[in-house]
């Protein structure tokens, strides 16, 4: 372009060169991964765990509950990939099936606690009278460590996956309601809500149309953290014998059984612990990624 | 030699969807003791220019190129240690938001004294005495009591005075003020502008004033740089700029601001509009950055970026047509 | 104007309680708006000016009944709306709409432009059928000079100025008689501000709208308005037609405000009044005249007795009221007796 002759009297500015290599703005899946590496990694690992949980029967030929007293506490080998426990059960299959319990509890608690917390938070954020009562109750619940609350609730019932979900959900509700209430209170101050009131929108529609959709992003992020913490709580409950019954293979149960042999047969504890850590990390990564991606302040910067 | 010379400054940022060319080839100079205003609308790169001078741009995602010579020394080649010795000492900065630029847990006296102890090795007592002196200088009554107060005990106007006191404590040669009065009410703004004018005579520091408010520019600046979309489009002494703007953007900007008293003089009842939007800085613009909104633009403007040319002594503009007398009706 | 005003406000008060202490009881009150009265005629623009914290935005929100009032009457076209139950009020809300300051937070990020504009139309039952709704949406986009097909886009796809246009379109959707512009152009860039100011003026002419223009920007106010009310610490200190207020301010605060605005004319000589100190807190406003702590002319009476708004003689026109004791002094001793707007603004 510099070679084109300019009309007399016209001077071109010295063209500026870019001082950094061009950014290749990629669309599609690849671009998404580049922009959101944490979501991609976290999502992939979570997907992997879900896959393992769903297809556990196809990934192992051994029954996780089959006893084989002759083959007790074998080291990891071609026969027992992760070794066998003191009853001769295959730890590899137990860990795979254990993913079912962990993920079920994690997802179920996340969904239930979010839904109930959302409901309570919305009421609390909109009805002043209810707010002071509800929030004092929530404060009371939050003053008990959630693991203790869950243990206490489990002590009232017999161990089953459903009861574990219930106990952890109740323990998680206060945090969600607080979050939703805070979001609702700040959303109520938004000019677009004022504008909706001024244009004659009724309160139920204000909540459905203007408040609820804007609560979902922070709630989704919170739900992932709840999911992660519920999986840990479930493992703790099972580990101390207050969770799922020992007959069901869950990571907490496997670790509890291997506890006594920790110094001589560490692999019994190691493999379920590794899976638990990876899953929790994956869910947390997903949560962090979602938080960054959904936060409107982070988007559209620069 | 000028106190500060900015030469072909480029500050680019890497973003997920392209390079943001926030500042793209801006040159200007500031003489000792002079007040230079940089005006433009949000996103024109004026604040980024100011931050670049002090090397306050995070790298990455940012990158600075060109030259920034302060007293002949290129700041872009200075080490971090050298930069720290310059910041707050020889060049200091006032920010827009007096609320967030002060540390809430330190007394005002500590914050003023800190720069003195850091840069000039003053004793604690000497620094506090100097802090009281500085508060007196910026017109804070009962300075002896106020040095012991915390920022939240002061009003917005007072906080901005404290910011100015901190900035001037080390007798800097250059003060960069980034929208110093934008967050303030008009009567408080008048106080601060009055103070800045007064201090300029007494302290003698050169000032780079970053603002979007043409009224403020007219009141305090001696020379003006007009920026648009990351480039300098015009530079002139303040009278020349307001009386005879050469760049169509400057003309549009001046025309779009109502003047107080218009109802008394019965001046125009409709404001001049600049149609359209500022172009995205993530696309490379080969021609004049203003061409997409300019009423006088031709094919030449969209194809070839105009060079800055001197139209009158000290008055430069980057426009293919500004140079031909009468081509643009003022 | 012989007909009844479109909007009449009598002794409006809004005090916000401050909760504190262990039991969250009311420990203090913010006297945000403390007894103000004004009226707006059909098709008229009244501007409410003042510095931050003077209560001008609270007035706007109080008129819209976004919160309950502490005291006072709001009469819209002969009907008292301040104590009306919200169900009865809802259809009347159509007549009074609002444009807010921040073009980003004033549009719900999760709604398309179409749904944002359709909300008031549906609420007030204005569209007969879906074809009518579409026609109305198109007409609204035309009115605010946005392309019609932009209704299918999301708010974040627009620039600040375009978003403000959408906000204006939403306000127009209910076919109001009065629009409250709460700092509607303050957050915009200079060149965009001019576009929106021009648009508002065109719309007012086209649709015969009345406007309450709440702003701190005196130059824009002067450009836009018919009359001006100046607020200080929750009170109106002066009301006057535009030319009277800018040409012959009759309150020391107005005078100082005018002289404080930087003029975009370098090197002009003007009379400057630089006020001392800051605006006192509305939690504990000064006794007597609220402005006496900063007033350059304050005398003993100002510290004890609160002045009331009363008509002031003005050569430039009728309808000038001011709340200042100086006007009880003989003209020779009253620094506000002569018209000196021109000196303050350095024009003419």
From TrEMBL, chain B:
Protein name, as recorded: ABC transporter ATP-binding protein
Q: What is its main location?
A: membrane
Q: What is the lineage of its organism?
A: Bacteria, Pseudomonadati, Pseudomonadota, Alphaproteobacteria, Acetobacterales
Question: Per UniProt, which keywords does this protein have?
Answer: ATP-binding, Cell membrane, Membrane, Nucleotide-binding, Transport
| Entry similarity comment | Belongs to the ABC transporter superfamily.
User: Where would you find the membrane-spanning parts of this chain?
Assistant: none
Q: What InterPro entries does the record tag this protein with?
A: AAA+_ATPase (IPR003593), ABC_Ni/Peptide_Import (IPR050388), ABC_transporter-like_ATP-bd (IPR003439), ABC_transporter-like_CS (IPR017871), Oligopep_ABC_C (IPR013563)
Q: Which PROSITE patterns match?
A: ABC_TRANSPORTER_1, ABC_TRANSPORTER_2
From TrEMBL, chain C:
Q: Main subcellular localization, coarse class?
A: membrane
Q: Which UniProt keywords apply?
A: ATP-binding, Nucleotide-binding, Transport
Location in or out of the cell: Cell membrane
What domain of life does the native source organism fall in?
Bacteria
Q: Cite the InterPro entries for this sequence.
A: AAA+_ATPase, ABC_transp_ATP-bind, ABC_transporter-like_ATP-bd, ABC_transporter-like_CS, Oligopep_ABC_C
Tell me one GO molecular function of this protein.
ATP binding
* The ABC transporter domain, residue ranges: 7-258
Instruction: Fetch the CDD domains from UniProt.
Output: ABC_NikE_OppD_transporters
Give the membrane topology, semicolon-separated if more than one.
Peripheral membrane protein
| Pfam families found in the cross-reference section | ABC_tran (PF00005), oligo_HPY (PF08352)
PROSITE patterns assigned: ABC_TRANSPORTER_1, ABC_TRANSPORTER_2
* Assigned protein family: Belongs to the ABC transporter superfamily.
This protein's name: ABC transporter ATP-binding protein
Q: Which organism is it from?
A: Falsiroseomonas tokyonensis
What does the organism's lineage look like at the top?
Bacteria, Pseudomonadati, Pseudomonadota, Alphaproteobacteria, Acetobacterales
């Amino acid at each position: 372009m510099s070679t084109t002759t300019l009309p007399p009297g016209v001077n071109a500015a010295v063209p500026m060169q870019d001082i950094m290599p061009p950014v290749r703005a990629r669309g599609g899946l690849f671009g998404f991964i580049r922009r959101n590496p944490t979501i991609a990694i976290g999502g992939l690992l979570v997907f992997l765990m879900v896959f393992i949980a769903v297809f556990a029967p196809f990934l192992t030929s051994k029954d996780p509950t089959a006893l084989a007293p002759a083959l007790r506490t074998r080291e990891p080998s071609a026969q027992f990939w992760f070794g066998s426990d003191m009853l001769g059960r295959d730890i590899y299959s137990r860990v795979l099936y254990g993913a079912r319990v962990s993920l079920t509890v994690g997802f179920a608690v996340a969904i239930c606690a979010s839904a109930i917390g959302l409901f309570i938070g919305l009421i609390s954020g909109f009805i002043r009278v209810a707010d002071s009562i509800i929030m004092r109750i929530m404060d009371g619940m939050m003053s008990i460590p959630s693991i203790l609350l869950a243990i206490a609730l489990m002590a009232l019932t017999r161990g089953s996956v459903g009861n574990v979900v219930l106990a952890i959900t109740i323990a998680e509700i206060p945090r969600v309601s607080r979050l939703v209430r805070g979001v609702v209170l700040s959303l109520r101050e938004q000019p677009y809500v004022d504008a909706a009131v001024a244009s004659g929108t009724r309160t139920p529609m204000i909540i459905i149309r203007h408040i609820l959709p804007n609560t979902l992003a922070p709630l989704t992020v919170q739900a992932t953290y709840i999911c992660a913490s519920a999986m840990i709580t479930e493992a703790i409950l099972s580990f101390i014998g207050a969770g799922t019954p020992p007959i069901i293979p869950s990571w907490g149960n496997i670790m509890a059984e291997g506890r006594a042999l920790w110094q001589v047969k560490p692999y019994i504890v190691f493999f379920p612990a590794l899976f638990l850590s990876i899953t929790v990390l994956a869910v947390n990564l997903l949560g962090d990624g979602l938080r960054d991606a959904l936060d409107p302040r982070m988007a559209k910067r620069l | 030699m000028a106190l500060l010379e900015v030469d072909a400054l480029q500050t680019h940022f890497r973003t997920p969807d392209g390079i943001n060319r926030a500042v793209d080839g801006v040159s200007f100079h500031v003489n000792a003791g002079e007040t230079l205003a940089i005006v433009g609308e949000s996103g024109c790169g004026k604040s980024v220019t100011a931050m670049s001078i002090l090397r306050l741009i995070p790298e990455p995602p940012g990158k600075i190129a060109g030259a920034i010579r302060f007293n002949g020394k290129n700041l872009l080649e200075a080490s971090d240690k050298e930069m720290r010795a310059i910041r707050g000492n020889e060049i200091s900065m006032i920010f827009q938001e007096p609320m967030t630029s002060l540390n809430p847990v330190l007394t005002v006296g500590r914050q003023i004294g800190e720069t003195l102890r850091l840069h000039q090795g003053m004793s604690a007592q000497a620094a506090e005495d100097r802090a009281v002196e500085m508060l007196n200088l910026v017109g804070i009554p009962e300075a002896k009591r106020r040095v012991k107060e915390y920022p939240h005990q002061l009003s917005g106007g007072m906080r901005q005075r404290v910011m100015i006191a901190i900035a001037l404590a080390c007798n800097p040669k250059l003060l960069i003020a980034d929208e110093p009065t934008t967050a303030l009410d008009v009567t408080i703004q008048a106080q601060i502008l009055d103070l800045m004018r007064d201090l300029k005579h007494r302290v003698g520091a050169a000032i780079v004033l970053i603002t979007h408010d043409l009224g403020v520019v007219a009141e305090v600046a001696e020379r003006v740089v007009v920026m648009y979309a990351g480039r300098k489009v015009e530079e002139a002494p303040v009278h020349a700029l307001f009386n005879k703007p050469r760049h169509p953007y400057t003309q549009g900007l001046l025309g779009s601001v109502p003047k107080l008293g218009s109802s008394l003089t019965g001046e125009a009842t409709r404001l001049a509009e600049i149609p359209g939007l500022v172009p995205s800085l993530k696309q490379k613009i080969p021609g004049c950055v203003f061409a997409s909104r300019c009423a006088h633009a031709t094919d030449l403007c969209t194809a070839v970026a105009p060079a800055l040319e001197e139209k009158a002594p000290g008055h430069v503009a980057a426009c293919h047509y500004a140079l031909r007398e009468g081509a643009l009706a003022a | 104007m012989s007909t009844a005003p479109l909007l009449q406000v009598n002794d409006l008060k809004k005090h916000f309680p401050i909760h504190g202490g262990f039991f969250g009881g009311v420990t203090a009150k913010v006297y945000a708006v403390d007894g103000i009265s004004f009226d707006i005629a059909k098709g008229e623009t009244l501007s409410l000016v003042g510095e931050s914290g003077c209560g001008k935005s609270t007035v706007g929100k109080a008129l819209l009944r976004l919160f309950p009032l502490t005291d006072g009457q709001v009469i819209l076209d002969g009907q008292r709306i301040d104590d009306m139950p919200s169900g009865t009020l809802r259809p009347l809300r159509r007549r009074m709409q609002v444009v807010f300051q921040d073009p980003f937070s004033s549009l719900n990020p999760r709604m398309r432009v179409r749904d944002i504009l359709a909300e008031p139309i549906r609420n007030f039952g204005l569209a007969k059928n879906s074809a009518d709704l579409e026609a109305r949406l198109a007409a609204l986009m035309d009115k605010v000079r946005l392309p019609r097909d932009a209704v299918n886009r999301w708010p974040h796809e627009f620039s600040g100025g375009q978003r403000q246009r959408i906000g204006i379109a939403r306000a127009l959707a209910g076919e109001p008689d009065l629009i409250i512009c709460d700092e509607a152009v303050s957050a915009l860039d200079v060149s965009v501000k001019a576009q929106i100011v021009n648009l508002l003026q065109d719309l007012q002419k086209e649709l015969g709208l009345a406007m309450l223009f709440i702003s701190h920007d005196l130059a824009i106010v002067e450009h836009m308005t018919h009359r001006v009310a100046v607020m200080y610490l929750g009170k109106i200190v002066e009301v006057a037609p535009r030319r009277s207020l800018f040409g012959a301010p009759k309150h020391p605060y107005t005078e100082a405000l005018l002289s404080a605005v930087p003029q975009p004319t370098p090197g002009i000589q003007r009379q400057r009044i630089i006020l001392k100190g800051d605006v006192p807190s509305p939690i504990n406003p000064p006794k007597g005249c609220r402005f006496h702590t900063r007033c350059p002319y304050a005398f003993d009476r100002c510290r004890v007795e609160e002045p009331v708004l009363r008509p002031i003689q003005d050569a430039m026109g009728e309808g000038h009221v001011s709340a200042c004791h100086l006007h009880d002094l003989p003209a020779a001793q009253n620094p506000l007796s002569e018209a000196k707007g021109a000196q303050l603004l350095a024009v003419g």
